[in-house]
Structure prediction request, 311 residues.
Amino acid sequence: NVCPHRGMKVSTLDAGNTQAHLCIYHGWAFKPNGDFIGAPAEKECMHGKIRTKAELGLQKARVAVYGGLIFATWNIDGPSFDEFLGDAKWYYDMLWCRTTKGMEVLGPPQRFMIRANWKTACEQGASDGFHAVTLHRWLAEVCPYAKKPSTEGAGEDLTPEMYGVEVWTDHGHTMRCIDQNRKIRRLTGKDPSKMTVEEKLTVLPPPGLTPEMVPDLFKNLSKEQLAVLASSPPQVGNFFPNGLFEFIYLPMADGKVMGAMALHAYVPMGPEKLMFMNWILAEKDTPPEVKAQMLRVSCQLLGTSGMVEQD
Prediction:
């Protein structure tokens, strides 16, 4: 998205269609695929004679589409996308490839600027679960996560909510897999030890799913993946280096929880400045009224002015 002439940003839009992209600086025009069309004053050869038109197109990245997400790299001859994901793909599939129709975004992304080096945000996104004990302590004081003096984690101790499994790969991808059985006991009052995998997934569906959507999981995931999804599912993690995802249960005013799915990107804007981008996601098959509720609750908790992100 950079004009090869003087480095101007060509398109300033996130989405749309056009027959030609026009650089606002000198009017150089490009096809949707990036090929150079021409420049004003063509007779006078404004675009010069050193390079042919075929050499003046926009630089093309190597692109891969996975689970509805678009990944790109300038390393044309580097490792394949599957090699880049490595062993993490087995876990990622439980989140991004679990339904037949896949996901969609609920509106444009939210954005805000942070005065910090982008790498510090990425390190936080690499499954640092222990910060919640202090930074998000209020979660232990309200709604379904509130502790009772006589229960596990007496008083306002959020520590047991952090118990789980840490998954990481040599490529830098990480995930926190949280104990789902504890959540089933606390939120439903049922005993998970007496339930089948399907029963556990139905009584407390993965974030973003309704009980009616659970059968679709069995069409897209292996027996082993379903077992992990029902016991210690990945809930927070990252795509190395600068993507963070959340598939979590958020407390609601009525004391229940709402599943939420969000994707953050930490975009470097300079040595000490980054843009925080936040997309709210939903499965395409999710009922419209549930999507609306997910969007509202996600913005209230995970949005740019949300209670969690404000921490």
Remarks:
- The longest strand covers residues 257-270.
- The chain has a mean pLDDT of 88.
